């Protein structure tokens, strides 16, 4: 069987358009696609119907992929089911990260990227994540974006970030522990745990990170004036912020624990959590 699992809420509510495009583009390779609205099913029921050799095509962006990854880790899916991604989201940081390894960006086989995933614990809740856990300025960007979206408007994440850098974001002091080694940082702007290289809709936060390595990279940006930070921060889109060693440090390991001295918003693959004091992110042995 060939299933098209689509999210009508993806791409700012344009998911139905993505579904139609997927059916049109994939008709030759996957005829008789069975359309499944991801928001209206219980995944456990679908998993029971899957058979080895079935093709499950996911139509959506990073948020949809995150939900899917957690579902297949929670419910038993038979071995031999093929997973594909038909990208149709707003950010698509996952695609940005792996596109150099893909022959066809319209349909990406994703089984190997879902075999082993990191987990994060926030406020007692554990979940798998695909791309990153963003904490600090990046978490607050998602908080403000949610508020703008709730008013029926489309947020511009870059504009929000620059506005917060100019004065609305209050820096925190942080303790960052990676594989048991703790470092303290003053006036922290961001302290994400990265599984891929990209986040925030195209920011190349950790250029050397490899999502298949079994390690995470915590990228800490700290100190310096707001003007200096804005200049350095603009380089994050191409990864050139790494040159600012006076205010950027990368810590690599299997277990990342970050604690702020005052709570702040946090995001997991774009989903916002408010008033977070600390988080744990790790790869299981």
Automatic annotation (TrEMBL):
Q: Which domain of life is it from?
A: Bacteria
Kindly state which keywords UniProt assigns to this record, in alphabetical order.
Kinase, Transferase
Q: Which residues form the YegS/DAGK C-terminal domain?
A: 132-272
Q: List the InterPro entries.
A: ATP-NAD_kinase_N, Diacylglycerol_kinase_cat_dom, NAD/diacylglycerol_kinase_sf, YegS/DAGK_C
Q: Does the UniProt entry include the keyword Zinc-finger?
A: no
Identify one Pfam family in the record.
DAGK_cat
Single Gene Ontology MF annotation? kinase activity
**Residue ranges annotated for the DAGKc domain, each copy included:** 3-98
What name is this protein filed under?
A: Diacylglycerol kinase family enzyme
Source organism of the structure: Anaeroplasma bactoclasticum
């Amino acid at each position: 069987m060939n299933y098209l699992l689509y999210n009508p809420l993806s791409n700012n509510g344009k998911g139905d358009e993505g579904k139609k495009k997927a059916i049109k583009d994939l008709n030759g390779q996957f005829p008789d696609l069975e359309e499944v609205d991801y928001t209206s099913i219980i995944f456990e029921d679908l998993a029971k119907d899957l058979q080895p050799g079935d093709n499950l095509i996911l139509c959506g962006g990073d948020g949809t992929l995150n939900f899917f990854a957690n579902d297949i880790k929670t419910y038993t899916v038979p071995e031999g089911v093929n997973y594909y991604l038909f990208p149709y989201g707003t950010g698509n940081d996952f695609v940005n990260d792996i596109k150099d390894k893909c022959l066809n960006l319209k349909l990406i086989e994703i089984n190997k990227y879902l075999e082993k995933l990191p987990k994060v614990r926030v406020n007692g809740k554990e979940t798998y994540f695909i791309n990153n856990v963003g904490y600090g300025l990046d978490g607050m960007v998602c908080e403000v974006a949610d508020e703008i979206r709730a008013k029926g408007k489309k947020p511009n994440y870059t504009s929000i970030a620059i506005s917060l850098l100019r004065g609305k974001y209050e820096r925190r002091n942080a303790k960052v522990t990676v594989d048991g080694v703790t470092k303290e940082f003053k006036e922290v702007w961001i302290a994400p745990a990265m599984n891929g290289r990209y986040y925030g809709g195209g920011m190349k936060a950790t250029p050397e990170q490899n999502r298949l390595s079994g390690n995470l990279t915590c990228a800490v940006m700290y100190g310096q004036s707001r003007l200096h930070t804005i200049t350095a921060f603009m380089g994050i889109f191409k990864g050139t912020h790494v040159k600012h060693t006076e205010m950027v440090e990368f810590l690599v390991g299997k277990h990342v624990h970050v604690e702020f001295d005052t709570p702040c918003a946090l995001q997991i693959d774009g989903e916002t959590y408010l008033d977070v004091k600390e988080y744990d992110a790790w790869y299981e042995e």
